[in-house]
Amino acid sequence: MNVKIVLLSLSAVIASSVFLIEFNKESNKHPGFDINANSSINNYKADTYNDFTETENGTVPKKMTALQNKSIDDDWCVASVELTTKDKNLAHKEAEEWALERGAIYYSNDSDTLGRVNEVYLAPYLEDSLENLFSHAKNDNEYALLAILQRNSIPLDYKDKAALNLMALGHTSNAISYLIIREMQSADEIYRQVGRVNYQVRQRVARVLAYASYGLDRLDVTGLDTYLMYDSRFNDGTFSFDPDIALSNSDLNKVNEQKNELLNYINQQREKRKLPKIENVELPRIAKHEFQSRLAITYNLYGNLIDSSSNLSKLNFVSISKNDCVQKLITLQNIDSSDYGVNM
Fold this sequence. Notes:
This protein is mainly alpha-helical. The chain has 15 helices and no strands. It has one domain. It is 57% helix and 0% strand.
């Protein structure tokens, strides 16, 4: 698959989420952290292991042979170069399972060219009656909750609650992206009404960064992608204010407070469900490799914005620094995949 198509498809997923939320403007309530998750409703195809082979010129032709002798438990970066065939297949399987676990499941539509192997889990709920859908959601059926986020006939307050319930169940990808979109659209509406960045706007942008930070803590870059999309939209003239200069140093100091409030909320909801604290839930071994691969894609999409971002610099998100593996993947993903590819 051509890397440019992959990058555009990842952007299209977020953009389609924006459309679905704008389509449901009948509810202007934004979620914050105080919605009762026990109320009336309680993929990317495996985000990738990469398929490159290194050459003396720094490019990585897919067709070249390479020494593949590492186990999935070893220290590796590029699966197809370093893992045995057996372990490469295992990495692929675990990547798909990790996508399910964090809720990186997006149903295909006409504008989406990126295949999604996990979308089959959502299909029954996208066509189900609302009565049945809500019944499943009340029982914490994760696929029903994800379908609520992606069905355009459902009021936004129901979607808000579904997203927060998903967070309580340990999801990050789809849930965080949805919540960030809601906050940014609310901030945009307020800005257009008052003509300036006021406290309410700053509060929402700080909450967005708290969501993104929490996602990064769980090795999920989706929230950061969604924030950077809005930063990019401002530069393109399609968003009303620049979120990167909206916050003062005092506002930025409150981002960690907001994240701790979110963490407390999630753990309170997990306690009600007799689930362990989220910080005690061990991430799978594939999570680091998927995160590095996705982070490389994020740099290829938004690298200039990341490097110039005042907010990200001051918040010092260590996890998004370019280590050797991420830098290598950035280079590899820049190669035209008519000859060199990412196995998505």
